[in-house]
Amino acid sequence: MPISNPRITGHAFLAGLYRDGYYPDHVVDRCSAVLVRLCERIEADRPADLPALYLLTHAATEEFNALEAEFEAAGSEIETVAREEIAADFRAVARAYGFEDADIEELIAPREW
User: Fold this and answer.
1) In 3D, which of 72, 67, 69, 82 has the Cα closest to residue 15?
2) Is the pTM higher than 0.85?
3) What is the pLDDT along the chain (113 residues), one digit of tens a residue?
4) Rounded-to-integer distance, Cα 44 and Cα 31, Å
């Protein structure tokens, strides 16, 4: 299902990571795909409230957790800069779908990075 939200279709996920050679593009591509799938799920499931949104963002966060080994295998890691970039994109997604009051820490609560 293609994303229809114009605030998302015009958004470049993880742009700062792509600009930084420390983060391998092929792994960042996988991370961007997680965020795209999150948007697709939000559009398909239309969460009615914050707890429903958090269920979706927690699943996406678990996908990021699983990618940590790929970062490490490529000589990188999800460290401070990456954490901030990822968190900012989760916040951007929440806001784009009308959840301005979403707590950033709760959006990514199950993170291991």
Assistant:
1) 82
2) yes
3) 789 999 999 999 999 999 999 999 999 999 999 999 999 999 999 999 999 999 999 999 999 999 999 999 999 999 999 999 999 999 999 999 999 999 999 999 999 99
4) 20
